[in-house]
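Sample entry (176 residues):
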Amino acid sequence: MTNNTTLILGGVRSGKSRLAERLATESGLPVTYIATATVQDQEMHARVAAHRDRRPSHWQLAEEPIQLATALNIHAIAGRCTLVDCLTLWLTNLLTAETPTLFERERAALLAVLPTLSGQLIFVSNETNMGVTPMGELSRRYCDEIGQLHQDLAHHCDQVVLTVAGLAVTLKGTPV
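Predicted structure, serialized as C-alpha cells:
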C-alpha cells in the first residue's frame, strides 16, 4: 500500500474537503488534485469555483470524472500527495453513464491499482448511508455501492476520518 493513505468521509458541507486540503498542504509534498465533478448546472459551477478558489494555485489539477484508476496510476507517485475529491461524484458519473458495466470495470480497476500506488493519497467521499433507505432503485443502488466502496477502501487505508460539523473524528489510524 502507499506510504500514507487516508479516506475522509462526511456529509455535505461537513468540512471533509477542507480537512483533505489541510492535510495535503501539511504533507509538504507537491500536490495533485484529482477532481471527479462534472459541471452541468450553475449551482455545481459555484461549488467547483469555491473549491478552486480555496486551493493553492501551485497545485496540479487533473480532471477525471470516469477513469480514476488511470489518473491515479499517472499521478500517485513517490514524493507527491494526491487528493481525490470526490468518490461520490465519481460513483454518480459511473452509475449514470450509458455503459451498464462501466462501474464494475472502473471500481475493479481502482481497487486493483491501490496496492501499486506511491506517495501520500487522500480520498474524499460523502457518507450517505446514515439515514433512511431511499425509495428509488438507482438511489438504493448508489447507497449500496458507495457503502461497499467505503468498506473496501477503509480496509486498505492507513487512516479513516469522519467529519461532522467541521470536526474530525478518527475512525482508524493516527488522529488528525
